From TrEMBL:
The lineage of its organism: Bacteria, Bacillati, Bacillota, Tissierellia, Tissierellales. This is HNH nuclease domain-containing protein. InterPro entries: HNHc_6. Pfam families: HNHc_6.
Length: 219
């Protein structure tokens, strides 16, 4: 028999894989009639993927992006004392005026729009001095753009607190930093605490732990 379904869960086992399928209510009875007698027995299944539908779905906002947005909105609401829904509508309006995007819904907007909206909210928080509960870098697709925003706003790319420019590509001992061209040197912005940790555990361990890295940035 043939029926439409969605993959609800995939679990890797020691031997093989377990795939859980989600079937809508209208098809449940019909499917059960056909497969009930084959419970716990080997069957052959053909999985046909609707390629166009999947490509379109991949372009839409991800659950991680949606979670990130609502986390940022909650941080703004906590800081301002306003309602989160009011904050969402106000920031969406400001975002639309500042960009070429039209009105959108967080339920089905594009992945690119969601990424730009996240950057907009992070920049807003940095400029207003709004403390962020979670690591600002978590859940971001365009991490490089975020790292440049941190350098521009002088905010730690790990925690969002006030930070200072750290040279990943070191200038060298005894050289006058004011006279050295560091335009091609990679940098990141770190607060005092994370700057100290960086030197303590080393670049590779730090980048692996926090998923941040140095970028070329000229202010």
């Amino acid at each position: 028999m043939k029926f439409n379904c969605e993959i609800d869960n995939i679990k890797t086992l020691k031997k093989g894989m377990k795939i859980t399928l989600a079937i809508n209510d209208k098809q449940t009875i019909e499917v059960m009639k056909n497969i009930y007698n084959f419970m716990d027995k080997p069957i052959t299944v053909d999985l046909l993927i609707d390629e166009e539908k999947q490509i379109e779905r991949m372009k839409q906002i991800t659950p991680e992006q949606r979670k990130k947005i609502y986390g940022l909105l909650k941080d703004i609401a906590t800081y301002t004392g306003d309602n989160k829904e009011n904050i969402k509508e106000a920031t969406k309006s400001s975002f639309i005026r500042a960009t070429e995007y039209e009105d959108f819904s967080l339920s089905n907007c594009s992945k690119d729009l969601a990424g730009d909206y996240i950057e907009f909210l992070i920049r807003l928080c940095f400029e207003a001095g709004i403390p962020l509960k979670e690591n600002p870098a978590e859940g971001l697709d365009n991490i490089e753009s975020y790292l440049r925003i941190c350098l521009e706003q002088k905010k730690c790319c790990v925690c969002g607190r006030e930070g200072e420019e750290h040279h990943v590509d070191t200038i060298g001992m005894g050289r006058d930093r004011t006279k050295v061209d560091d335009s091609e040197n990679r940098k990141m912005c770190l607060c005092r605490e994370h700057h100290t940790e960086y030197h303590k555990i080393g670049r590779k361990n730090f980048e692996k732990k926090y998923h941040v890295y140095g970028v070329i940035y000229n202010n």
